[in-house]
Please model this.
Amino acid sequence: MPNMSSEKVKMPEQDPIKRGKNFDEVALGYTLEQAIEEAKRCLQCKTKPCVSGCPVNVPIPEFIKLVEEGKIEEAYKTITKENALPAICGRVCPQESQCEGLCVRAKKGEAVGVGRLERFVADYYMENVKTENEEIEQLDIKVAVVGAGPAGLTCAGELAKKGYKVTVFEALHELGGVLMYGIPEFRLPKALVAKEVQTIIDMGVEINKNVVVGRSITVDELLEEGYKAVFVGSGAGLPKFLGLEGENLNGVYSANEFLTRVNLMKAYDFPSNPTPVKIGKKVAVVGGGNVAMDAARTALRLGAEDVYIVYRRSEEELPARLEEVHHAKEEGIDLKLLNNPTKIIGNDEGWVTGLECIKMELGEPDDSGRRRPKAVEGSEFVLSVDTVVIAIGQSPNPLIRQTTTGLNVEDWGGIIVEEETMETSKDYVYAGGDVVTGAATVILAMGAGKQAAEAIHKKLLELQV
Amino acid sequence: MYKIVDKRQLNKDVDLMVVKAPFVSRKCEPGQFIILRADDNSERIPLTIADYDREEDTVTIIYQVVGYSTQVLRTKEIGESVKDFVGPLGQPSELKKHKRVLGIAGGVGAAPLYPQIKKLHEMGVEVDVIIGGRSDEYIILEDEFKKICHNIYFATNDGSKGKKGFVTDVLNDLLDNGEQYEEVIAIGPLIMMKAVVSITKPLNIPTAVSLNPVMIDGTGMCGGCRVTVGDETKFACVDGPDFDGLLVDFDECMRRQNMYRDQEDHVCRVGLEGGQKNA
Model:
């Protein structure tokens, strides 16, 4: 019997007041019974619109059918044929604009909870099933992957499945990229990232941490050393600033620094962990994406009393996932919409004391299709804050483009690739993820890594014949 | 893991450590730095490269014990390892083939100055060096510098070696005596570099300084190390660490460097090379 309820089976969550004071995961996940009940809401449509919305083509109705039948291990294998990081994707994908956005059930009520089900399957499998690695026939061909984030790890995993000798080079001391340094524990537990990353290493991928490609070794040198192809998934690790007066005052962070201190260096556990983070009582986060929501909710958990999101458009245009905006509001984050910062104000000792903003109104749609915000003249006011976090996006890190010969890049720094193959202007060099698109989502980066792996495989096969 | 192949204490506060790190040793140039983590629970500490040996795959670092993580580092013995050691980071120094250059170092600032002076010496540049410290005991790398310098001068706070006073007192003496230098390279505490620049700027002597602000990743990602140089904001980790001293906003640097002082006094210091506080 299909479940015709117009609403998703509720997923248990931590109480908003309580969770604002801890870093434990907010959403607690389905039980087996809840998952089966939700799976029954899937109509198993022949046209599968959901799949066309998935950047990595997870066979969604198939795995949901298996959940309904209680065959979780098989459901897991069905997902991981296409997606190596389901526990992560089930948590951080913007489902409402992908699979769930196209779900037939969404026309009358809520979409099937594809993300929740994916998360359930991955968690259940990791907890209850012992993994066995399949024997893979090894090829004697070396491929290098730059960056152990979602794009690089996916590309590495896909190539390892095909038998390539893959070496991943990572600049930081942990694997996972933005999954480790960026996305907070309460949204994506780090132990889970480590576990899911381990499944990729277990495929025989070699890992070289603490290697900054572009400094420790260059892409050209990797090719000279016998790597037959190089995939660059170095992400968008260069924070954007507003260029405002007062931006170098003490108490002004890029979201990257703030979140890296807390997530990667565990500053939330200071002084048990030696890396500190300075968080005041009143915090303004500038920006409206997932990173801004993460920074605001992190500040709250570190003890800030008033946390504002300052965003120049309206709630409708917020680029963050719906669920995150909803969670942030529940926790008491104050959305200062239609406001744009104009100046950061400091005291004599150089510490932030306020953020001057100007009110905005929306005009005609701009190139992005969103209504263009315009300043309301004379409407400046000062938000009294002692910490400002700038979360207006990142651009690609320049080290690789500066040190690789023959690599064509966009004016803003993104590496230019062939859309289908992710091949760059340089032979045997591929790129994907945020280094190509600018800051985007985990799943798009994974999709790019996967596409590149296919293209690399095809290219290197041609070479052998 | 990165094996410690040599280690010795240079004075009460300062250690020298030689670490096996092939990716760094093969590539590094004077002026560049590394980031290390002593163990799983340590901070990421940026330290300038004091020397390197491409054949032995080793890199020499010199650090001042000032907080939790450098204390952990001090407990590591020859044969043991440090957990993470990444680099080389930053831009190599732009060393010009001048006739005559003056190097000025305060405290452990002598460590990053050394490879630059060594390279200049190899390039045939005549180099004088002023080294400052709290007392005789805190003067490091004296023998190494003597081998490559034309003249070497000392300044100590208590007068136990060289002139009693600051490196800037020696600098003033030299300039008063009519000594001429095409460039000054000053590395040490911010307050020292600022004082040097206050002398060289009116005389228009090009002055390179090496900044070591708070940073996390060292690859341009966190933006914590931003400094104002001229009218621009620069990231010390990817645009530096060397900058035109005549253009650096030292007051802003000092302010930003003290951002975590109260917490550091509590348990640790983050991302700061020791000598910048003292010497």
Notes: The first strand of chain A starts at residue 142 and ends at 146. The mean pLDDT of chain A is 93. Chain A has three domains: 16-128, 142-237+395-464, 241-392. The interface with chain B takes residues 171-173, 181, 209-212, 215-217, 237-239, 241, 247-248, 250-251, 253-254, 256-257, 260-261, 264-265, 270-271, 273-276, 278, 349-350, 397-399 of chain A (CB under 8 Å).
